[in-house]
Amino acid sequence: MSLVEKIKSGEERLAVVGLGYVGMPIAVAFAKEGVKVIGFDLNTDKIELYKSGIDPTNEVGDEEICNSTIYFTADASELQKAKFHIVAVPTPVNQDHTPDLAPVIGASEILGRNLKKGSIVVFESTVYPGVTEDVCIPILEKESGLVCGIDFKIGYSPERINPGDKIHRLENIKKIVSGMDQASLEEIKNVYDLIIKVGTYPVSTIKTAEAIKVVENSQRDINIAFMNELAMVFDRMGIDTSEVVEGMNTKWNALGFRPGLVGGHCIGVDPYYFTYEAEKLGYHSQIILSGRKVNDGMGAFVADATIKQLILAGKAPKNAKVVILGLTFKENCPDIRNSKVEDIINRLNEYEINPVIVDPWASQEDAEREYGVALTSMAEVSEVDCVILAVAHNEFKKMNLEDLDKLYCSGDNENKILIDVKSILDKKLVETAGYRYWRL
Q1: 176 neighbors 188 (Cβ within 8 angstroms)
Q2: How far lies 417's CA from each of 80, 147, 315, 385, 410, in Å?
Q3: Which of 286, 288, 271 is nearest to 128 (CA)?
Q4: In this structure, how many other beta carbons lie within 10 angstroms of the beta carbon of residue 257?
């Protein structure tokens, strides 16, 4: 009987190492198909939340957690009960933008110490081409005393989730799969086919699968960087970028990208993984790193535009009261990692402005730990000079001008500054009402 058949019958278990925005949906998806799933994470607080039926990621929801048969644990020895392991830990970058492989190395060490003969290990964490075979395999072999290819097999299947997206979900996104040989590839494909309704896409090598992930995100990063550069130029020309984009999108082959803040744990990070390995091979990226530089500067650009509008309104920046609506790295998602709203805050701080931050999706604890900022409820905000709509949460998109006006100091609308980073408001309506309006 094949491993996938044993997993389907319940004879063998499947383990997911890392229960965050990537790992949790995977664990739930397999459990819904009747697979006996071990969900492992080092974070004991997170494990207790899951055991209590609470989903801190908001990716699958509390009800799904409550109804799940997943065995949640922070005890690594429980991994010995599984034969198919999926590693879904984060892969951030260091301060110097070099890859931080500590999480994936740590996961490999833990898994290696609890690996059984006949197991298959699949990495989903985003890495540069070569990490799975050159970094992870040696660690697994050293810690387990087993030989890869003889005692256990390995593969790679890059995560492609889009946090906060309720349409493009794990089960309806084509899954790239790879294995160290044909036998492992077939087993890995068959296991993922249990949960991926639109099918899997096998590729010839593990390195190819690793490359696909970093390149697809690098491509998106570059396209957004192009739009951001246009936005900065159009701002100097006095041209409305959104109107240009809307007109451009009337052509059939327009790509539909818009300017914006590029953060998070994927698009704002993955290009550095690719260029790091390219540099090691003697090639210096001409386009990818340039795009990263543009995107990394957009927070400061938005803050500078805010300062300009304050000055034009006759307000001294250091005396201005500013509220920023949104802290997470994207809309309708509680993840604040690598949020470029931080760059807006830091730049405003340089002008002695300490903005008030409102975000119904973000955790107060995370905000204080990651950025040292306190969150405020919308009800507590009043008498501000400037509102920066930084993140397009549904709660903010539902606000009309009357709702926004309650946040400002009393007075003429022309002195009320409204910075619309995501262009979610009706420009004509806002300008007709007389607000000092700027959008990216």
Answers
A1: no
A2: 59, 64, 10, 6, 13
A3: 271
A4: 18
| Domain 297-440 in the same topology as domain 205-292 | no
The whole-angstrom separation of Cα 264 and Cα 325 is 17
Two structure tokens written together for 323: 């509220």
Q: What is the pTM of this model?
A: 0.92
pLDDT band, residue 165 (cuts 50/70/90): confident
Give the three-state DSSP class for 313: coil
> What is the percentage of the chain residues whose pLDDT exceeds 90?
92
- 3-class DSSP assignment, residue 401: helix
Closest CA to 16 of 5, 29, 32: 29
Query: What is the arrangement of strands in the sheet containing 386-389, beginning at the earlier edge strand?
Result: 356-358, 322-325, 386-389, 417-420, 436-439
In this structure, whether the domain defined by 205-292 belongs to CATH 1.10.1040 is answered with yes
pLDDT in tens, 110-123: 999 999 999 999 99
Query: How far apart are the C-alpha atoms of 203 and 167, rounded to whole Å?
Result: 26
Residue showing tokens 């299947």? 157
Say if residue 2's pLDDT is above 80: yes
Give the pLDDT confidence of 182-223 residue by residue, as tens digits.
999 999 999 999 999 999 999 999 999 999 999 999 999 999
Coil, strand, or helix at residue 344? helix
- Please compute Rg for the chain using Cα positions: 24
Q: What is the pLDDT of residues 227-258, one digit of tens each?
A: 999 999 999 999 999 999 999 999 999 999 99
Domain-wise residue ranges, the chain = 3-204, 205-292, 297-440
Active site residues: 266
Class of domain 3-204: alpha beta
Give the chain's end-to-end CA distance (angstroms, integer): 58
Residues 7, 83: Cα–Cα separation, whole Å: 9
Mean pLDDT of 19-40: 96
Q: What is the CATH number of domain 297-440?
A: 3.40.50.720
| CB within 8 Å of 239: residues ≥ 6 apart | none
Position 351, amino acid: Y
DSSP result, 5-19: HHHHHTSSEEEEE--
DSSP of 46-113: HHHHHHTT--TT-SS-HHHHHH---EEES-GGGGGGEEEEEE-----B-TTS-B--HHHHHHHHHHHT
CA-to-CA dists, residue 147 to 109, 140, 185, angstroms = 15, 9, 18
